[in-house]
Write a structure and sequence with these properties.
Rossmann fold, 7 helices, 10 strands, 30% helix
């Protein structure tokens, strides 16, 4: 059974890549990173570092999937006659003043599905409707985020969570991993592992325009990564009127439902998540 890492380039999934490459976990056959088109600059910088490290240290092959671009799709959707688009979980303000949120589809269409297609066509060379062999897909979720584990719907998938010590598979089954496949760790323990090994610690990964960001994250982006913040503001303005996609209310990236460029952020507000966008993208 092949072992494939869903590489999100955040703290946990990148640690799995390095641990497996160093022999601290079973060696993966491939690692797959699905690029939605506008991750943070720090994430692309770490990808460049990781590719260089892989080349010089017999690291696991990294497959980069970038045939779907959520950033450009969001910028162009208001001019499209198509009724369907994969919305991000942006905020809406209703007529009565209450705040709503769009249903999230971007995770599946721009993260999970592209990885599945890479497994089917690139790795197995399989036809579209042919059944795939059982495949172990490793995911970087630490013990403090165990509620983010999921059970795959597809019969061929086995989700492996080494930091939690569990394997899940259809139909709704979960078994404990063997000691060889496990490395039970909390997020702070993973951070310590980077320091002990001398690796730079990756920052949290996400699209620059992801609505699931705290004011602290927005403040950091605006202050230290202004190009990323400018791109987020461009998306924020672009999606405001999405009536062609049957969204009647104005759409905003920030929970206040005011234009992102006008928000005064609180630098020390807590994050809305603690993990990275690796496969399940904060679900």
């Amino acid at each position: 059974m092949l072992n494939i890492l869903s590489l999100g380039l955040g703290l946990q999934s990148t640690a799995l890549y390095l641990m497996s490459s160093l022999g601290e976990l079973p060696r993966f056959d491939f690692a797959i990173f699905s690029d939605p088109g506008k991750e943070k600059t720090s994430t692309y910088s770490y990808l460049k570092y990781l590719l260089h490290w892989q080349k010089n240290n017999d690291g696991i092959e990294i497959i980069i999937v970038n045939n779907k671009n959520l950033y450009s799709d969001l910028l162009s959707h208001t001019n499209s006659t198509k009724q369907h688009f994969a919305p991000i979980p942006a905020f809406t303000k209703n007529n009565d003043g209450t705040i709503g949120m769009l249903r999230r589809q971007c995770t599946h269409e721009y993260k999970i599905a592209p990885i599945d297609r890479a497994i089917r066509y690139y790795i197995y060379g399989s036809q579209a409707r042919k059944h795939l062999p059982n495949t172990r897909i490793w995911k970087g979720i630490s013990r403090d985020e165990i509620d983010r584990m999921s059970i795959p719907q597809e019969a061929w998938k086995h989700h492996i969570y080494p930091f939690c010590g569990w394997e899940t598979f259809s139909p709704g089954k979960a078994i404990q991993l063997t000691t060889a496949d496990s490395m039970l760790m909390f997020r702070d323990q993973i951070t310590s592992w980077y320091h002990k090994k001398g690796f730079p610690v990756p920052l949290k990964s996400s699209c620059v325009f992801c609505p699931f960001q705290s004011d602290g994250s927005w403040f950091h982006m605006k202050t230290f990564e202004p190009a990323d913040f400018k791109a987020a503001c461009t998306v924020d303005a672009s999606i405001r009127n999405s009536t062609k996609q049957r969204v009647k209310m104005p759409i905003y990236l920030h929970k206040s439902c005011i234009p992102l460029s006008d928000v005064h952020f609180k630098a020390q507000s807590p994050d809305l998540w603690s993990g990275d966008c690796s496969g399940t993208c904060h679900i």
